[in-house]
Amino acid sequence: MAVEACDKQKLMDDMDDDDEPLVFKRSSSAAKQNQSVSETKKSLSQKHDRQLGKPAPDIRSQNGQSTMVEKSKMASSSKTPPVRSPLASPKSSNSSAKSFAVKSSGVNSKPSTSVADESNSVKQQSRDKRPLTEATAELNEESEDSDDDKPLTARLSAGFSKINSNHANKGPNASILGQKPKIPKSEDSDDEIPLSSKFQVKSNAGDSSKKSPTSGGRKPLSAKCDHNGLGSPERKPSSSTILKKRPADGVKSAGESHLKRPKLSDASASNKNKETSIKAELKEEDDEDHVPISARMKKSTSSDKKPSSSKNITKPVSSLSKKINKKSKKVTKKSEYSKSSKVPPGSGEGQKWTTLVHNGVIFPPPYKPHGVKMLYKGKPVDLTPEQEEVATMFAVMLDTDYMNKPKFKENFMDDWRKILGKNHVIQSLEHCNFTPIYEWHQKEKEKKKQMSADEKKALKEEKLKQEDKYMWAIVDGVKEKVGNFRVEPPGLFRGRGEHPKMGKLKKRIRPSDIVINIGKDAPIPECPIPGESWKEVRHDNTVTWLAYWNDPINPKEFKYVFLAASSALKGQSDKEKYEKARLLKDYIQDIRATYTKNFTSKDPTKKQIAVATYLIDKLALRAGNEKDDDEADTVGCCTLKVENVEPVPPNILKFDFLGKDSIRYQNEVEVETAVFRAIQEFRRGKKGGDDLFDKLDTSKLNAHLKELMPGLTAKVFRTYNASITLDDMLSRETKGGDVAEKVVVYQLANKEVAIICNHQRTVSKSHSAQMLRLNEKIEELKGVLEELQTDLARAKKGKPPLKNADGKPKRNLNPDALERKIAQTTAKIEKMERDKETKEDLKTVALGTSKINYLDPRITVAWCKRHEVPIEKIFNKSLLAKFAWAMDVDPSFRF
DNA sequence: GAGTCGACTTGCGGCTAAGAAC
DNA sequence: GTTCTTAGCCGCAAGTCGACTC
């Protein structure tokens, strides 16, 4: 049981002393200890399993059995609450054997850096403080056989190939205001290839694979509703505790309303689907249900031939689901497309904490004027500190691409002019020369770089000392790391893509801008700036933020201070996310049958929903919310424009659009004929800029998805497809070998997911130079190889080797030695070729994003345990902390 | 039901320390 | 020992989606 924060001030004092969060390092004995402890205490994860309708295992997980786990040792701070039981992971069903193969030209075989011992420790996350009686509830996890022992069969084969190129938002090199040097941009055309284009979807006649035994007995997510401890009376906040929600911010003026796409009227408000299956019992041998997206892509058109599940997929709602969705059912009755089921989000609703103590936020230091004068029409200009500060913000960006963006400069000048005043000598940006300030800044940077290691260390320690008290919060008696406790410093807004507000001044945030959220009984954080005070102090335990302020660029939006990713609150919500995605596995068959059936629906809304869901499922597209005009012009599935999707007969769809972060998505996909025809129909009579899905928006789509599975939204498909792809690839491709080889398998799977999700990165500036160097080395080694082969031939004839390039005689080696050298050199060349290929292959692929956000960590942990790969080879220290809740997963876990 | 608000999650790029290569 | 390269942390922008209001 956690120690209640009875003496909060003392706890906060203690917080200053500790520099590490509560962690546990488990030794085998500790594991045993955990086990016994956990017999009396229900872990958070178990609770959540139950909330999710999944019984927790009644057999403890085999903690401490794997090498990885044995490494860990239990440790706890004397000043922090005692550790609680580790999380027992549910056993899970295996996905059925699916086949697909990915063509990949290379793999980044480099293992991640190992982490220090302390990084092996994982934070104790189980913080369940509920009564023992509740905790000991019998949990009957359905157990499904693992197919770990089964031979890995080759499954589908998916041919991925590059199509064509380019990154969207990579503008040409900026010309520099103030004659600053430019950073040349890579011209390498291949650099621009979006990941999504790197594979081509081909159709293939159906291979049939077995469907995994689905867990018919698994409770729907909605079961949480009944079990949600948070909603239980003892956890319910008192009326005084749950405070008013944030009032509508008055900042927004009427004039700020933006042109929006007209909302759609509900097309088919009929109730015929009110009984639409939550979980249909169609357990037909449909082969694609658990096939990872990449595998299915290969088979896309084959389903044309298949009866698209002509079964009646409308099933009665399970009683459990009915229980949950009392509220939503009303809505559902009215319309199958209206906002419906409000699935209780495990952590999304209700009380999040009982006690919360923290020290507020830390502000950036006040501006220190440097006095370096910029030039206007060639003459030095005097600026006030405030004016100079903004000029400096611009000057330090002279070597960025923003200098190529007129909008950036225009917005900057508009805001700077307000500070300069009407009559200031500076009237036009054109005549400004910021070079002196830029150079001063470069020198400062250089000075910092040149500091000795000791000086740097001292500086770091000083900073840490100042920040330490802000780094921690105590949530329900448990010390947790705070994520972003630093208030954003003033600067120029760096919007991505062609953001209409780029270059605008982000003003300095003051205490009077900040709303603090803290426990009712906790001491209110002292305002760190003398003479100033917080805007407001709240005690809202239904939210997880510790502080927020209005975004100075979009005052109607907010910047929040949250707990770090390693916190229990975040971990809990992470786990729920993955559990929801796992649940989709049980529904996916019916969902796919439903949308396939509706491809030809006469109801246009239904038809659009079907096609959109298909694209989201098949291509892992984002939902695509409406956007205001003062945001970058990017789209997702529901907001695709006619010009973004080009049908190429007989059944290819060419996608080309800017997605999140203005990252270009380019892909050519072979789709089912019915989808192809539907897209042609949706385009008919429309202009390029018109909405492809004119009868659809995200709320309508999500409302429909919720009718198919409780809590299902568009984004769940991304998580599901990413995780199931990883699980499947790891299971199929891991065939032994040493740790390094297994890590390569993991990276390959990770890369596949990154491609599916279109996670791109900018090609490093030195990429071409690196490639050039590698090529040179390879050529050099090839020359050496040739010489060695000549020498060998001569040696075999008893002749001495030829002289080397310098004309000097070489060592006279015997044929055996020469053969060994040849083998070594050949291996070296091969390795370099592989490295080169990998480097080229991954130059635009970002592996980290999917690992952090989309891949259920339990897949990774279980795989590591099964194959004796140290988890540190896959997860760095941060990920180990973030995924602490997943560390005790059973080795047989499958997504 | 549409529009907006609010609370989160997701995502990329910059900076920097650590490690590899020379 | 120095330079180069990269992993990882951090900042903050940009999404998603449920709740609320009118």
Automatic annotation (TrEMBL):
Provide the GO biological process annotations: chromosome segregation; DNA replication; DNA topological change
**Biased composition regions of type Polar residues, renumbered to the chain:** 26-38, 60-80, 106-124, 197-215
Q: What's the Enzyme Commission number for this chain?
A: 5.6.2.1
Q: Where is the composition biased (Acidic residues)?
A: 139-148
Q: Which residues form the DNA topoisomerase I eukaryotic-type domain?
A: 492-868
Compositionally skewed regions (Basic residues) per UniProt: 323-332
- PROSITE patterns for this protein: TOPO_IB_1, TOPO_IB_2
Q: Which reaction does it catalyse?
A: ATP-independent breakage of single-stranded DNA, followed by passage and rejoining
Biased composition, class Low complexity, residue ranges: 85-105
Enzyme kind, highest EC tier: isomerase
Which keywords does the record carry?
A: Coiled coil, DNA-binding, Isomerase, Nucleus, Phosphoprotein, Topoisomerase
Residue ranges, compositional bias (Basic and acidic residues): 1-13, 39-52, 272-282
Q: Name one GO molecular function term.
A: DNA topoisomerase type I (single strand cut, ATP-independent) activity
Please state where this protein is localized.
Nucleus
- Cellular component terms, GO, for this chain's entry? chromosome; nucleolus
- Give the span(s) annotated as Disordered: 1-353
Give the UniProt family note: Belongs to the type IB topoisomerase family.
The cross-references to PANTHER family, in alphabetical order and at most eight, read:
DNA TOPOISOMERASE 1 BETA, DNA TOPOISOMERASE I
Q: What does this protein do, in the record's words?
A: Releases the supercoiling and torsional tension of DNA introduced during the DNA replication and transcription by transiently cleaving and rejoining one strand of the DNA duplex. Introduces a single-strand break via transesterification at the specific target site 5'-[CT]CCTTp site in duplex DNA. The scissile phosphodiester is attacked by the catalytic tyrosine of the enzyme, resulting in the formation of a DNA-(3'-phosphotyrosyl)-enzyme intermediate and the expulsion of a 5'-OH DNA strand. The free DNA strand then undergoes passage around the unbroken strand thus removing DNA supercoils.
This chain's protein is named DNA topoisomerase I
Source organism:
Handroanthus impetiginosus
Q: According to the entry, what is the taxonomic lineage of the organism? A: Eukaryota, Viridiplantae, Streptophyta, Embryophyta, Tracheophyta
